[in-house]
Amino acid sequence: MGLKIVGSISVKIDDDVVKIPGKEFGIEESDNRHLGDGDHQYEALFMYFDPDNRFKLMIQAVEYEGQVSQVSRPSLEGDGRILEDELDAEIC
Q: Is the pTM of the predicted complex or chain greater than 0.70?
């Protein structure tokens, strides 16, 4: 199993608003983590890099027992600010 980001996020940079679909986020890091007692969870860090190098977005998601158990709020590094966040994670 794996995870993917769905939905979209809007970022305002100066007078420009950029809407980024979740499918544009790529996996930067992922790992299966042993929690003890035979339990495991899959963790993934997804990132989006602005093609003009103005900002990058990061979001983390966790799958446990076949379901998405946690999705972090996205964080933005660089210029701009998040206007609207409709990102989520799904099992794929």
A: yes
